C-alpha cells in the first residue's frame, strides 16, 4: 500500500498565496500534483478573482527551463498571477545583496541652479528647492522637502525610487521615464500637517506614488523571476 505525499503546500498571506514545493521529489511527479491541485482538489481557493502567488522551491536546483515548466502549469489558471519563483538560496543572495548596497548620507540644501550628482544610493538630509536637482544612479531618499527635480536610476535602472518627507517636485525622473505629478500645492497648504513621506516608482513603465510604509511590499514584488 502506497501513501501519497503532499508535495505542495499552500499558505495564505495578506495579499495572496505562497506555494511551497517539495525539495526532493521527481519534478514530473511535482508537476502532476500541481496540475491535479489546479484542476480538481483546490478549486475553492484557486478559483474566482485574480490571485497573486509566490512560488518557493527551497533547496531544489531548478534551471530556467524547469521554472518555465512550473509557470506553464500555473498559467493554465488564468486568474493566477505569479509574482515570484525562487529557492531559499536565491532569496538569501538577493537579501544579502540588498543589505550590502551602500547608502551615502549628505546634508545641506540644494538651491535653484544647483545640481547634486551621486553614483549609488543617496540619503539627503535637507530640502531641494525649486530649480535645484538631485541626480543619482540609484535610489534617492530625501528627509526634507523635494520641490525641485529628482532623477533616480540615471543610468537606466527602472527599479530605482525617489522618496521624500514632502514630495512636491517640479519634475520626477526614474531611468528614462519623466513625470510631473499633479499640482497639489493648494491642498498641501490647506492641510500642512497632514503630509507624510511618500515615494515614486515605476510600474509597467508608468510613474506611481505611494506611502513610504508600503516600500517593503514593492521591493518584494520587484524581485520577480524574469521569465514570468
TrEMBL record:
Septum site-determining protein MinC N-terminal domain span: 8-85
Family of the protein in this entry: Belongs to the MinC family.
Pfam families registered for this protein in UniProt: MinC_C, MinC_N_1
Gene3D superfamilies found in the cross-reference section: 2.160.20.70, 3.30.160.540
Residue ranges constituting the Septum formation inhibitor MinC C-terminal domain according to the UniProt record: 107-209
Record's subunit section: Interacts with MinD and FtsZ.
UniProt source species: Saccharibacillus alkalitolerans
Protein name, per record: Probable septum site-determining protein MinC
PANTHER family: SEPTUM SITE-DETERMINING PROTEIN MINC
Function: Cell division inhibitor that blocks the formation of polar Z ring septums. Rapidly oscillates between the poles of the cell to destabilize FtsZ filaments that have formed before they mature into polar Z rings. Prevents FtsZ polymerization.
Ranges that cross the membrane: none
Keyword Cell cycle set for record: yes
UniProt keyword list: Cell cycle, Cell division, Septation
Keyword Cytoplasm on entry: no
InterPro entries on file: CAP/MinC_C, MinC, MinC_C_sf, MinC_N_1, Septum_form_inhib_MinC_C
Coiled-coil portions: none
Amino acid at each position: 500500500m502506497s501513501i501519497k505525499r503532499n508535495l505542495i503546500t499552500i499558505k495564505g498571506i495578506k495579499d495572496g498565496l505562497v506555494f511551497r514545493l517539495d525539495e526532493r521529489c521527481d519534478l514530473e511527479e511535482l508537476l502532476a500534483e500541481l496540475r491535479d491541485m489546479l484542476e480538481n482538489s483546490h478549486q475553492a481557493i484557486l478559483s474566482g478573482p485574480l490571485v497573486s502567488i509566490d512560488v518557493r522551491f527551497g533547496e531544489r536546483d531548478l534551471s530556467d527551463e524547469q521554472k518555465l515548466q512550473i509557470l506553464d502549469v500555473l498559467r493554465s489558471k488564468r486568474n493566477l498571477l505569479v509574482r515570484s519563483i525562487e529557492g531559499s538560496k536565491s532569496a538569501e543572495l538577493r537579501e544579502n545583496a540588498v543589505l550590502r548596497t551602500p547608502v551615502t548620507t549628505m546634508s545641506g540644501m540644494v538651491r535653484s541652479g544647483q545640481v547634486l550628482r551621486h553614483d549609488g544610493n543617496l540619503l539627503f538630509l535637507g530640502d531641494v528647492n525649486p530649480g535645484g536637482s538631485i541626480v543619482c544612479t540609484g535610489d534617492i531618499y530625501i528627509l526634507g522637502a523635494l520641490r525641485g527635480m529628482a532623477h533616480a536610476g540615471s543610468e537606466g535602472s527602472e527599479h530605482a525610487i525617489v522618496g521624500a518627507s514632502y514630495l512636491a517636485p517640479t519634475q520626477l525622473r526614474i531611468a528614462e521615464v519623466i513625470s510631473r505629478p499633479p499640482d497639489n500645492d493648494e491642498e498641501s497648504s490647506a492641510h500642512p500637517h497632514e503630509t507624510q513621506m511618500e515615494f515614486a516608482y515605476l510600474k509597467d513603465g508608468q510613474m506611481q506614488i505611494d506611502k513610504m510604509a508600503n516600500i517593503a511590499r514593492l521591493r518584494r514584488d520587484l524581485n520577480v523571476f524574469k521569465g514570468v
